Amino acid sequence: MQTTSAQERCHLYFLTTKISCSIRKSLSDASPTSPSATTKSLRHERLSRLSSSGSTDASNDTSTNHAESYFLRRENRLSARKKAEEETANNDYKKMYEKALATNQRLKSRLETSKQELTMIQDQLQRAQKGKPGDCTSNMLETEKKVKAELKMENQRLKDENGALIRVISKLSK
To answer: Superkingdom of the source (predicted)?
Structure first.
């Protein structure tokens, strides 16, 4: 009987060492959003209860081993599922961000194009508004140029006449 309990103790030590190593590994591999402290403490309590059960019955020992392996597999499944969900959520957020960024870029380019079209249309409108009075203004400028040229010619003719009259008066006064 002494050997059986020594074997059981050795087996339990092996299992608890294996379990604690796997827990340490899963905790070190876990992301920052790993299970909360209460979940970790519950897991530790279950494992300590399983390892401290120290029964002498071999059938009870195998049921404990089955229970330990069941809980380990269950914890592994749950942590794997949580990791997969977190990765999916992260990928979804990343995809949503990239989609929003692409939409934003597309809308910015459309806005820039619209601004350029607005500027061109405003320039055309200003030219069109200036063009109507501009036609009148250009006609008025042309007539003013003609009148100015006529006035210059008349002014020159009058200067010439004035110079001739001054010469005549100066000859008469001698």
So the answer is: Eukaryota
